Amino acid sequence: MDPGIPITWNEALSGVFGSISIAAWIFLLVPQLITNYTHSSASGLSLAFLLVWLLGDITSFVGSLLAHLVPTVVLLGGYFCVADFVLITQVLYYNFINARREAKKPSAAHANANGHTADNEESPLLRRDSAEAAHQPRRRKSSTASRRSTLSRRYSRGSLPSILEESTGTTAWLKNTGAIIGICAVGAAGWGIAYGTGVWKPVPSPSAVHASRMGKEASMQTAASVLGYASAVCYLGARIPQIVKNQREKSCEGLSLLFFCLSLLGNATYGAGILFHSLEKDYVVKNLPWLLGSLGTIVEDVVIFVQFHAFRDRPPPSAIV
User: For the stretch 87-115, what's the b/e string if a residue is b when 16 or more beta carbons lie within 10 angstroms of its beta carbon?
Assistant: First the structure.
């Protein structure tokens, strides 16, 4: 530690929030990656959402480097770019695999036109159901209701992996809350270890730094601001395709609730880490693009939470017989 720069309570909180933000973003993708793997599909995610998000992370990272922001902001910016690439790669892989699988499926219309019934596992069941329906018309209604209930339960189990309990029920919220508390504890402990070992050091407040910057450094600050505002626009616009997709399909199937919970936590602590460092006007203006990009998306995350709640009990049309 540098004994020449005493730590203040707001600087300590800035470091703690920054560390929690790093922990949240590190674990952010894990729930969604597991959900995609469990489903062998990434159809619930909007690719436009991910691509615009990646563009925002790239511009944010470059801008934070040029603006000489606090190390946690720069570090997160670089990690975001790597994490986005991993998730986008997985989405493209599953989209490609599933598109090929669908293309190989024989057309039902073509099979009927040739007078043949597809020889698969469902054919005997269909024939047996038809025979039972013919001989037992009174049981047809109850049988249909039973199959619908069974498919709905199968949909619920298949779409909400047991490893994460991706529903909006009480158990799921308790587990997600526990995960968030755990990540906060890990982040706070990580900062304490970093500070105790001298890895993390207090950063001088903006008033302690010579404010006048001329020539090349001033032009770099302008470029950093432009990139910062570009990243804010990307962040604010990225979730719109996902929100529209959820609303159009009346479903959040394939999305991880914990993914968006951690996104909310990461954005909130990211902004808090910046603001607790200093509230001086020049400093806030300098960091304004990154504050807009982080705190502004919280509103959109809340909209997605509302969609999770609104669509939680609605099975997709394909699950209804």
Answer: bbebbeebeeeeeeeeeeeeeeeeeeeee
* Every domain of the chain and the residues it spans: 9-101+165-202+216-319
**Cβ(24)–Cβ(269) below 8 Å:** yes
Instruction: Render pLDDT for 182-241 as a digit per residue (tens, 0 to 9).
Output: 999 998 998 888 888 877 766 655 554 444 444 446 667 778 888 888 988 998 999 999
H or E stretch covering 10: helix 9-39
Query: What does the buried/exposed string (b/e) look like for 20-30 if buried means 16 or more CB atoms within 10 Å of the residue's CB?
Result: bbbbbbbbbbe
Per-position DSSP letters for 29-87, written without gaps between them: HHHHHHHHHHHT--TTS-HHHHHHHHHHHHHHHHHHHHHT--HHHHHHHHHHHHHHHHH
Taking Cα atoms as reference points, which of 150, 163, 36 lies closest to residue 91?
A: 36
pTM: 0.67
Cα–Cα distances (Å) from 154 to 66, 101, 148, 159, 213, in that order, read 52, 22, 10, 8, 63
- At which residue do the structure tokens 């793997």 appear? 37
Closest by CA to 321, choosing from 168, 122, 118, is 122
* 3-state DSSP assignment of residue 7: coil
Q: Tens digits of per-residue pLDDT, 75-121? A: 778 888 888 899 999 999 999 999 888 888 765 445 555 555 444 44
| H or E stretch at 279 | none
The per-residue pLDDT of the chain, averaged, comes to 75
Give, for 169, the enclosing helix (H) or strand (E).
none
DSSP per-residue letters across 88-146: HHHHHHHHHHHHHHHHHSPPHHHHHHTT----STHHHHHHHHHHHHHH-GGGHHHHHHH
Give Cα 91 distance to the centre of its chain. Answer: 13
The pair of structure tokens assigned to 70 is 């606090």
The proportion of the chain whose per-residue pLDDT surpasses 70, expressed as a percent, equals 69
CA distance 184 to 266: 10
